[in-house]
């Protein structure tokens, strides 16, 4: 039986790397389809002419969007949401851009700690943080007599 040479091992390693790369891409694509397919379904259903959606649709219409924007509660809330989003974006940019420039140019340990603290929400998913806060509040409620979560009755 012939022994594998270094070149054979390199070739095999490169083939395994390529196969893993393809598998990771397929897994990511499957994840995107899994996450985005309900959104695509809701968008598709929003154009149905039927009041109760069923497939195949009777036809397509923009009537639902027109009636939503004719409703003053919806349109006022939508406009207010847009205004809040614009103001929050402007404030966020006005604060974060100078802070980022200052932190990146600094070499102190405090600057590095601040960078780690500010980028933590990108690393730790929000649901994990929420679950941790919830469990902490339950423990605090059990240790004390305070009603922090759940019912106040």
Topology:
Layout: H1 6-45, H2 63-70, H3 72-105, H4 109-123, H5 126-143
Notable features of this structure?
single chain; extended; 153 residues
Written account of the structure:
By secondary structure, this protein is an all-alpha fold. It has 5 helices and no strands. It has helices at 6-45, 63-70, 72-105, 109-123, 126-143. The mean pLDDT is 86.
Residue share in β-strands: under 5%
The number of helical segments is 5
The averaged pLDDT comes out at 86
Broad structural category: mainly alpha
Instruction: State the separation between the terminal residues, measured CA to CA.
Output: 78 Å
Instruction: Give helix and strand order, one letter per element, not per position.
Output: HHHHH
- Major sheet: none
State the shape. Answer: extended
Number of strands: 0
Low-confidence stretches: none
Rg, Cα atoms, Å: 27 Å
Helix content: over 70%
Write a brief structural summary.
Helix content is 75%, strand content 0%. The protein has 153 residues and is mainly α. The longest helix has 40 residues, at 6-45.
């Amino acid at each position: 039986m012939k022994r594998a040479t270094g070149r054979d091992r390199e070739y095999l390693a490169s083939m395994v790397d390529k196969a893993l790369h393809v598998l990771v891409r397929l897994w990511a694509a499957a994840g995107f389809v899994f996450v985005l397919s309900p959104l695509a379904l809701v968008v598709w259903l929003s154009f149905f002419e039927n009041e109760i959606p069923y497939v195949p649709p009777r036809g397509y219409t923009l009537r639902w969007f027109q009636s939503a924007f004719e409703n003053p509660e919806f349109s006022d809330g939508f406009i207010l949401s847009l205004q809040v989003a614009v103001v929050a974006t402007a404030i966020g940019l006005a604060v974060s851009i100078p802070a980022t420039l200052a932190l990146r140019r600094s070499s102190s340990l405090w600057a590095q700690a601040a960078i780690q603290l500010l980028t933590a929400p990108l690393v730790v998913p929000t649901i994990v943080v929420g679950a941790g806060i919830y469990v902490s509040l339950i423990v605090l409620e059990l240790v004390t007599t305070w009603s922090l979560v759940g019912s106040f009755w």
